[in-house]
């Protein structure tokens, strides 16, 4: 795992020393992603500079140094990631023997020479972000893996094209124009992250997963696209193209068109075979390797398959909390004992968690407000004390219907869809504006509702959902914090959406749960889950790998009927059948817990003074990004205990904390 960066300066006014210096400034900003080695390369005649920081995983020798040139000298690459099938690719590239080393980077370059860039990526199984300069064609190509495991930002600043694994490398380029994108802030307030293709800066974007962006040096330069009209759609133009080499939507369509034919038991065995193949491939490493183990279905499945094919105990890691509502460590410990792993757990105090908060703006580099980024960082830091690579169970929920909303929203829509929208919205308003104590009293009269533990929060959430005019808008409400009718960003379009949220009409044959799973896979997964784990892990120089996101597993999952994923109200049914072959089901059959922290209580307690400073009314008005009125209203309601606005407030606090760092001299 590494960090990559570079630029293409069409003015050609920088001398070779300045180009090398600029590339080094940018790559040094990514030292945490690659503490083992670094290098820069430039071609003054083309205005291209490349920088790399290396975390050595495969081929620890100097033969793995980057930037790396192909044997003929035509291609120069900076590469972040792993190609798990690169040894198999080498067998098809026998003409390039003898090899200089055994890195997958060298394998990629040979593939580019033999088959071209796009054809090589289609043959490759892995996670990656890369940039490659083709001296013969005078093109710079950027590419990102199929599911978006590895990050890649790009865009224009003062006429120079820039790219990097993280924004901090772009900011290091002399004269970088860091204008904050208010529409992106509005998206952050809704989704706790900034969805692809946007970034916090105008004119800077995230590359779509599974795509290749190519710029051609024409000698006349390329006019940067208008930052107000970002490149959402694939397009072709003079000197620039953005095209897919793999599409999740197409993979899902094709899976529907040719479902797996076999009995249930045969399907379970085939899923285990495909998943085992992915797990074994992702264990290639020249450094110590382990896995996160939360005790849930997904991480337990990955660890069980690892241990089933290992002659030594797999190193596993979990963190525990002393608060029972947030603690799953005891389950992870029992599973580790049963499987015979070399297990390490660490119980953290509130002070340990709170100490991470000042680091978050630097770790995540742009505002990011999923509260589970705190425990994710803590478990990554724990694992890095013992290993350099850790496998993760992320992705199982999106592929196998693991979120409550995948089945719950369909049931709600069936019950409310018949009711005229004006009536539903009138009822919603009645509920939404009831004080919690009066709502608690009303709920207590309903059958099967506990008077003490009545789900007031769920009632407020349901009141928001019944306002939806379609299942798609109900999904958007479900995944949003600040809603469209509750704007908070000054000058930002609160109704602004990322295009990936719009599922094409051609998928109308998909059931509602399948559409929700697909939407989660193209938005929430790459923009939240994978961002969270990449930045947390790379912040401590730990490489993470996600076997569920091997594209062969993804494609097979979309060949399975919904009834094998959600059955009898149980999520991930078929995945549980695989797991039951290794672990007694009573160890993992419990309600979905999540990986959280007692955020609401902390905001009323140890974080209150810190939050009050960031949410000061005069400060918000002076900075001019957020409307103080709704922010202060929610803050006062939260600290008084009248309402629980922890997630809304955390969105604001993470932006304010990031902005404070941004404004530092």
Give a structural overview.
Residues 2-218 form the Glutamine amidotransferase type-2 domain. One of its GO terms (biological process) is asparagine biosynthetic process. InterPro entries: Asn_synth_AEB, Asn_synthase, ASN_synthetase/amidase, AsnB_N, GATase_2_dom, Ntn_hydrolases_N, Rossmann-like_a/b/a_fold. It is a single chain. Helices cover 41% and strands 15% of the residues. It is α+β, with helices and mostly antiparallel strands. Strand 15 (315-321), helix 10 and strand 16 (342-348) form a beta-alpha-beta unit. It is globular. The two termini are 31 Å apart.
Cα shape: globular
Structural class, by secondary structure, is alpha+beta
Number of helices, counting only DSSP H or I runs of 4 residues or more? 27
Runs with pLDDT <50, length 5+?
220-237, 447-454
Q: Rg, please?
A: 25 Å
Task: Write out the strand line-up for the largest beta sheet, numbering strands in chain order.
Answer: 4-5-6-7-11-13-12
Q: Indicate the mean pLDDT.
A: 88
The main β sheet shows up as:
7 strands, antiparallel
Question: What is the strand content?
Answer: 5-15%
Report the end-to-end length measured between terminal Cα atoms: 31 Å
How many β-strand stretches?
18
Helix residue percentage: 40-55%
């Amino acid at each position: 795992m590494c960090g990559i960066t570079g630029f293409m300066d069409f003015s050609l006014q920088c001398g070779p020393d300045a180009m090398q210096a600029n590339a080094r400034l940018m790559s040094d900003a990514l030292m945490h992603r690659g503490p083992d080695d670094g290098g820069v390369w430039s071609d003054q005649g083309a205005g291209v500079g490349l920088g790399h920081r290396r975390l050595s995983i495969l081929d620890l020798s100097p033969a793995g140094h980057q930037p790396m040139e192909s044997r003929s000298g035509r291609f120069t690459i900076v590469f972040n990631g792993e190609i798990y099938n690169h040894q198999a690719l080498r067998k098809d590239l026998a003409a390039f023997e003898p090899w200089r080393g055994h890195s997958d980077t060298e394998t990629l370059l040979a593939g580019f020479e033999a088959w071209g860039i796009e054809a090589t990526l289609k043959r490759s199984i892995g996670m990656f972000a890369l940039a490659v300069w083709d001296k013969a064609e005078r093109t710079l190509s950027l590419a990102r893996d199929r599911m978006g495991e590895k990050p890649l930002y790009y865009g224009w600043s003062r006429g120079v094209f820039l790219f990097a694994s993280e924004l901090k490398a772009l900011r290091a380029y002399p004269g970088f124009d860091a204008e904050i994108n208010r529409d992106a802030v509005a998206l952050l307030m809704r989704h706790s992250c900034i969805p692809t293709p946007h970034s916090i800066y105008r004119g800077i974007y995230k590359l779509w997963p599974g795509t290749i962006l190519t710029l051609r040096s024409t000698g006349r330069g390329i006019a940067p696209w208008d930052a107000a009209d970002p490149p959402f759609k694939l397009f072709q133009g003079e000197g620039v193209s953005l095209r897919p080499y793999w599409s999740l939507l197409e993979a899902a369509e094709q899976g529907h068109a040719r479902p797996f034919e076999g009995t249930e038991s045969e399907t379970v065995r085939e899923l285990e075979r495909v998943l085992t193949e992915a797990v074994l491939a992702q264990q290639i490493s020249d450094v110590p390797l382990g896995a996160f183990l939360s005790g849930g279905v997904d991480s337990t499945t990955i660890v069980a398959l690892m241990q089933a094919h290992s002659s030594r105990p797999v190193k596993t890691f979990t963190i525990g909390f002393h608060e029972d509502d947030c603690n799953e460590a005891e389950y992870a410990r029992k599973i580790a004992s049963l499987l015979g792993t070399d297990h390490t757990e660490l119980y953290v105090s509130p002070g340990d968690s709170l100490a991470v908060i000042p680091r978050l703006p630097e770790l995540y580099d742009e505002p990011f407000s999923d509260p589970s980024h705190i425990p994710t960082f803590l478990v990554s830091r724990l694992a890095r004390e013992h290993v350099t690579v850790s496998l993760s169970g992320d992705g199982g929920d999106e592929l196998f219907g693991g979120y409550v909303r995948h089945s719950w929203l369909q049931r709600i829509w069936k019950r409310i869809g018949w009711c005229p929208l004006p009536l539903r919205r009138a009822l919603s308003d009645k509920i939404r504006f009831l004080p919690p104590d009066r709502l608690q009293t009303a709920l207590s009269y309903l059958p099967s509702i506990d008077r003490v533990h009545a789900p007031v929060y769920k009632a407020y959430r349901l009141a928001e959902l019944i306002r939806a005019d379609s299942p798609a808008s109900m999904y958007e409400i479900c995944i949003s914090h600040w809603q469209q009718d509750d704007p908070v960003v000054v000058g930002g379009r609160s109704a602004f959406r990322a295009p990936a949220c719009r599922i094409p009409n051609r998928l109308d044959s998909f059931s509602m749960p399948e559409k929700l799973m697909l939407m989660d896979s193209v938005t929430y997964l790459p923009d939240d889950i994978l961002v969270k784990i990449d930045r947390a892990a790379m912040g401590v120089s730990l490489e993470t790998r996600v076997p569920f996101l091997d594209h062969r597993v993804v494609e097979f999952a979309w060949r399975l009927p919904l009834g094998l994923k959600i059955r009898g109200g149980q999520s991930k049914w078929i995945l549980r059948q695989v797991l039951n072959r290794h672990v007694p089901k009573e160890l993992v059959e419990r309600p979905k817990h999540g990986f959280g922290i007692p955020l609401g209580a902390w905001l009323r307690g140890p974080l209150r003074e810190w939050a009050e400073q960031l949410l000061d009314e005069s400060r918000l008005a002076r900075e001019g990004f957020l409307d103080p009125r709704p922010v202060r209203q929610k803050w006062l309601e939260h600290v008084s205990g009248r309402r629980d606005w922890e997630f809304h407030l955390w969105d604001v606090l993470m932006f304010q904390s990031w902005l404070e760092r941004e404004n530092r001299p």
